Amino acid sequence: MSLETRRTKRLSYLAPDLAATRLLNRGQSRAFPILLLIIVVAVLVASRQALLVLNALATALYVIAFLYGLYLVRQALSEPATVSVGDALARALVDSDLPVCTVLVPAYREPEVIGRLIRAMEALEYPVDRLDIKILLEEDDRATIEAARLSHPQPHIQLLEIPLGLPRTKPRACNYALRFARGDIVTIFDAEDRPDPLQLRRAAAAFMRLDRSVVCLQAKLSYYNARQNLITRWLTVEYASWFSMLLPALAAKGLPVPLGGTSMYLKRNVLNAIGGWDAFNVTEDADLGIRLHRLGYRTAVLNSTTYEEATSDFVNWIKQRSRWYKGYMQTWLVHTRHPRRLWHELGPRGFISFQLTVGATPLVPLINPLFWMLTLLWSVGHFPFIAGLFPPWLYYPGMICMVLGNFAIIYANILGARLGGYPDLLGAILLAPIYWVMMSIAALKAAAQLVRLPNFWEKTTHGLDQPSPAEGSLAVE
Asked: What is the pLDDT of residue 470?
């Protein structure tokens, strides 16, 4: 194994049990087939009782997820927990007091947006002698490389070619670039990002006043083409709830925070010490957030917004969402390899939160179609076997989840849209059940791909946005 490979896949050697190099470890490879065999035998031998137990477990998941969601919404509304740094304070910082900041921007097959990306990086209000921007380009991606060169980036922006290697993932490219980083703080932007120009200054000021245990700041994410079509509206509402409610609530309660894929600010010494990003995990951001928490570090949410391009067509959305779900599945499998150790490192509250924010995120849309099918069959034919699966002690909790749970999700989305500055997206929120069906399609694809191609990074196509003039202006606020 070459030294270069070891550097870009350092986590796999530093802490193999925390890396997604393998889908399952030895214990999981033994336990999961045995568990599956027990379930199959139980269903064949005692069908009604086995299905009833499985139904009870699924209903319990819905009930717990419903109550946990209410808990986080209440926390988000009662105690806003974002770190705010005003424009005046951000600009008042003396340049010589600012830390060197490394900005990594992976860009693969992005010739259409690379020029716009470089202009956005040049618009950052940060002293150029303390700014280390690296555009990460795969060495065989000649179209993007040529487009980047033709954009004539300023001298503080380096075009760094990443040598060919596997897995071809964003975290592998970032790990390679990390060895050349000069900054005390490292952040990532995606190729289509338009960050708040003062965001780096806000992050530097926030680190100066926060406890030293806070080694990561996650900025908020939103979309500059929010109103392009129904899919972009759904995505915008979802991001508003996630970054304006869920993540701040998790951070406020000292719970594990699954990071977003961009605009997170990390102390480089800590990032190096823990092995960087997992090159084999397709949601390396969420995994890193959990790993930081396990090691005793903390994350805070920065009140500054980076605007991205919302995926605007169905096929592209399925590709992106199935990758996210697959990565959450990978992250759950990796961190549950040693449940007792995880319980000890996260604590009881953190352990439960991890199961519900990472484990349940792909699991719920995966099992939803089963209950939709049962509901449809009961509505059509009142089949006796369905009635047998829902005795009163199970029927009423399930009914509460179906009615109040769905209402709570829609209401939380309305609150998130208002907090995120999108109160006009109510119509899209009321059509959310269609979006839930799309989520289930993506979850099913993710589960199938997890078995066949666990480390495959399915590329999201950018440059399809059609923002209105009003939305375009948001990107530079």
From this structure: 45
What is the b/e burial string over 42-52, where b = at least 16 CB atoms within 10 angstroms of the residue's CB? eeeeeeeebeb
pLDDT (tens digit, 9 = 90+) per residue, 310-365?
Answer: 999 999 999 999 999 999 999 999 999 999 999 999 999 999 999 999 999 999 99
* CA–CA distance, 261 with 263 (Å, rounded to integer): 7
278 and 11 in contact (C-beta within 8 Å)?
yes
Q: What is the pTM of this model?
A: 0.94
Closest CA to 475 of 221, 300, 264, 242: 221
Q: Which CATH superfamily is domain 1-477 in?
A: Spore Coat Polysaccharide Biosynthesis Protein SpsA; Chain A (3.90.550.10)
How far is it, in rounded angstroms, from Cα 409 to Cα 352?
Answer: 20
Residue closest to 3 by CA, chosen among 244, 154, 165, 199:
165
Angle between helices 432-452 and 314-335 (to 10 degrees): 60
How far apart are alpha carbons 62 and 72 in whole angstroms? 15
CB 167 within 8 A of CB 455: yes
Q: Positive or negative, the Cα torsion across 291, 294, 297, 299?
A: positive
CA distances to 353, 376, 386, 391, 396 from 379, rounded to whole Å, are 35, 5, 11, 17, 17
Name the phi and psi angles at 314, rounded to 5.
Answer: -60, -50
Q: Which residues of 5-36 are buried (b: 16+ CB within 10 A; e: fewer)?
A: beebbbbbeeeeebbbbbbebeebeeeeeeee
State how far the Cα of 441 lies from the Cα of 368, in Å rounded to an integer.
Answer: 10
298-308 and 194-195 strand pairing: antiparallel
Quick: pLDDT tens for 218-272: 999 999 999 999 999 999 999 999 999 999 999 999 999 999 989 999 999 999 9
Tokens of 128: 């150029």
- 266 beta partners: 186, 216
Instruction: Specify whether the CB–CB gap between 255 and 349 falls below 8 A.
Output: yes
Q: What are the extents of the domains in the chain? A: 1-477
